[in-house]
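To assess whether the prediction recovers the assembly geometry, we first specified each molecular entity separately, as shown.
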Amino acid sequence: AQSVTQLDSQVPVFEEAPVELRCNYSSSVSVYLFWYVQYPNQGLQLLLKYLSGSTLVKGINGFEAEFNKSQTSFHLRKPSVHISDTAEYFCAVSETGGSYIPTFGRGTSLIVHP
Amino acid sequence: EAGVTQFPSHSVIEKGQTVTLRCDPISGHDNLYWYRRVMGKEIKFLLHFVKESKQDESGMPNNRFLAERTGGTYSTLKVQPAELEDSGVYFCASSPYRGQNSGELFFGEGSRLTVL
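The predicted structure of the complete assembly is given in tokenized form:
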């Protein structure tokens, strides 16, 4: 069974600063990886996903993530954040060849200060 | 195209009462999922429907929870009788098909349940 660890429950950052949200996963088989974002009073929406190929994945709103198989990580980065990036970010993993049902982490609240 | 809709957005009930949450998936999506998030914790899988059939209900906490998806369209999740630990946000998600979809889900805004 797979699992996801998001070590940081909250990440405060100033506007225009870079940010990295950490995600580590555990699985005995190959995986697909996802980052979802939840803005206040909205549902989760897909930010980006890694299925195969290039380990650097670019998503919406200037976010990107890098799949590191040896470190079982899929950290999310943005070089310069905006106030509107304030939201909760969830990392998720699903196993290839299995049920494809994603397992989510506990989320990281990104708080961007002016 | 309408997204996944959930009703009610917020429900406050007393311990021992019954609550029914409803989810309308995106039209044409055969797969429907229920997840729950207890405050500050991970979003935990409850169950998965493919059309009207329960494909995986391994995440259902106990027999106080009953999910249905009549006709393979909307789904309901009933909690009876509700307990304090059932409080949380219940998310519904849908996807068009398995495998090739690779786990990408489309979520509703969630139904917040508060049990007093």
